[in-house]
Specification:
Layout lengths: L3 E3 L9 E2 L13 E3 L5 H4 L5 E5 L6 E6 L10 E2 L2 E2 L6 H4 L3 E10 L2 E11 L5 E2 L4 E2 L9 H29 L3 E9 L5 E10 L1 H5 L3 H9 L2 H10 L3 H17 L1
Antiparallel strand pairs: 1-9, 2-10, 2-11, 3-5, 4-5, 6-7, 8-9, 12-13
């Protein structure tokens, strides 16, 4: 269950947050949406791919955490076992909502901070306070507000990136044919990546355009992240061995 409400320092003056990275707390997902501004840090930790949003037909970047639904191999006894946590995960239990505000006499939806009061990390007795005693934002809330802004801006950046890569025919589907230590196999479909051969064949003007828009760097980060797939398989194998023993 979720209960999303507009966050304010009067109604929620006593709210505290104590994130615990355990299954059932909103973190047991095998992938999460990510944003171009994060690629540099993400590529050190996770395999990065695209998935297709069938509502918009755009390709959206994701970080892969596991090989089946609700399998997050980065969860480790209440901790997130990686140095960098994607914004879309770390922002919990906060999220972006919209509220109509009058701008130049016209009602305009503006992004505002909402909180999920039913999230397991929320309480009034334990954890980090959201607000200071005099009503100001805590250091934690200031950081989360910055992350929510980065997420909002990141949503705006995904569509033009997708359109450019599709226009240059750089997106290709990929099927992961996996085999694990216990002999089990898994074929993971529905993922997309950047075609290295098509990228290498681009003319100088196309490469210049990619570089000018900042997309060439994003592409290289996504390609470099593919090395993390082997590390993710090793995480899976360790889990299988531990379960068997």
């Amino acid at each position: 269950m979720t209960k999303h409400v507009l966050l304010d320092n009067v109604s929620h003056r006593d709210l505290r947050v104590s994130p615990t990275f355990r299954p059932g707390h909103g973190y047991d997902v095998n992938l999460a949406r990510i944003f171009p501004s994060e690629f540099l840090l993400l590529q050190n930790e996770y395999p990065l791919f695209f998935i297709k949003n069938h509502d918009t037909s755009h390709f959206e970047p994701i970080a892969l955490f596991g090989f089946s639904e609700q399998e997050n191999l980065y969860l480790d006894d209440g901790r997130w076992n990686a140095d960098y946590i994607p914004h879309s995960i770390e922002r919990q239990p906060l999220l972006i909502g919209f509220q109509d505000q009058t701008v130049d006499g016209v009602p305009t939806p503006m992004p505002v901070v909402h909180v999920d009061l039913d999230h397991p990390s929320i309480s009034e007795s334990e954890g980090t306070p959201l607000f200071l005693p005099h009503g100001g934002e805590s250091e934690w809330l200031q950081r989360m507000t910055g992350i929510l802004k980065a997420i909002h801006d990141g949503h705006e950046a995904i569509q033009p990136l997708s359109q450019t890569l599709v226009g240059m025919e750089l997106i290709e589907s990929v099927s992961l044919d996996l085999k694990f230590a216990d002999g089990s196999k898994k074929i993971l479909k529905g993922l997309y990546t950047v075609s290295e051969s098509r990228l290498a064949a681009l003319a100088g003007t196309a490469l210049e355009l990619l570089n000018k828009r900042g997309y060439l760097h994003h592409v290289f980060m996504m390609l470099a992240s593919q090395l993390n797939l082997e590390s993710l398989i090793k995480r899976k194998n360790r889990t299988l061995v531990a379960t068997a023993s």
